[in-house]
Amino acid sequence: MNKKIYGLFKANKAAFAGFIIFAALTSCSKSNEEITAETQANALNIESIQKGQLNGQAITYIKKDGKNFFQGDIVLTDQQLAGDNSANKGGATLSRWPGGKIYYTVASNMGSINANKITSAVSEYNTKTNVQWIPRTNQTNYVQFIFGSSSGADGWANIGYQGGKQTISLDQYISVGSVIHEMGHAVGLYHEHARKDRDQYVSIQWNNIQDGQAYNFNIYNSGTDIGVFNINSVMMYWPNSYSKNGQPTIKRADNTNFTYNRNGFTTGDINTINAMYP
Ligand SMILES: [Zn+2]
Question: Which tens digit of pLDDT belongs to each residue from 51-73?
Answer without folding.
Answer: 888 887 888 899 998 999 999 99
